[in-house]
Structures are given as C-alpha cells and as structure tokens.
Amino acid sequence: MIDFTAVQNSVRALKNQLETNQIDEKIFEDHLLTLIDVAEDGHYWMYGHESERWFRHDGKKWVPANPHNILAQRQNNPAASNQIGHHHSDLEDLSLNWSWFVASLIIIIGIGWLVYFSSLG
C-alpha cells in the first residue's frame, strides 16, 4: 500500500534533483511513475510535482483528491492497515483493467514532455 508521506517526500526530492540538474527529465519521469501506487481504497494515487496536490485515479481519469480519510482510517485502526499491507501481493494477483493505467502513464509522460520543451523556449 502507498505510503503517502514517503511518496510526497520522494517527489519533492526528485523535483529538487531535477531543478539542480542532478538528474535529467527522463530519469525524473521514470522515477515519478514508480511512485504511483494503490491505497486501501483500491485506487491508484499519485502526488503532483507541479501542483503539490494528491490525485486519485477514478477508473477513467486522474482527479484531485485528499488522502485524509485513508490516513485517518490507518490511525484509527492500525491493525487493519497492517493486515491490508500484508495482503498487498494478493492485490497484485487480481486481474485488472490496465488500459486506463497505460493511458494515464502516456498522459503523464506527455505532460512531462510539454513542460520540458516549454522550458527550452
């Protein structure tokens, strides 16, 4: 399951590395894609490096969302969160519709290219 704090910190660190030319745009984008993960609500979540907001995939598109309910549930029931985390491999075995996920990745990469090329001019 996604660790919201760790992902947020990682995105900010990657953004800093990009801005200080420690990594290039391709490495930045590749690392961002690895930070997209599933939460207890069964949805994919990602942290927007430009907006510094959370986004949840609703099955069709990325929408701004707040992981507050998930975090509150973890605090109120840590045993359930640990149990869900231990069954993460079971979730990976489920048959999922990957077409929306691939389309989202293409959109993310496209936005990255737009940002990159707009910064050149």
**Low-pLDDT runs:** 83-95
How many distinct helices? 6
* Number of E-type strands: 4
Query: Mean pLDDT, nearest integer?
Result: 82
Spatial strand order of the main sheet? 1-2-3-4
How would you portray this structure in words?
Helix 3 (about 70-75) crosses helix 4 (about 80-85). The model is unreliable at about 85-95 (pLDDT under 50). The chain has about 120 residues and is α+β, with helices and mostly antiparallel strands. The protein has a 4-stranded antiparallel β-sheet. The chain has one domain. It has helices at about 5-20, 25-35, 70-75, 80-85, 90, 100-120, and strands spanning about 35-40, 45, 55, 60-65.
How are the SSEs ordered, and which strands pair?
Blueprint: H1 4-19, H2 25-34, E1 37-38, E2 44-47, E3 54-57, E4 62-64, H3 68-76, H4 78-86, H5 88-92, H6 99-120
Antiparallel strand pairs: 1-2, 2-3, 3-4
Q: What structural keywords apply?
A:
single chain, globular, 121 residues, alpha+beta, 6 helices, 4-stranded antiparallel sheet, 4 strands
Summarize the model shown:
The protein contains 6 helices and 4 strands, in the order ααββββαααα. The chain is of the alpha+beta class.
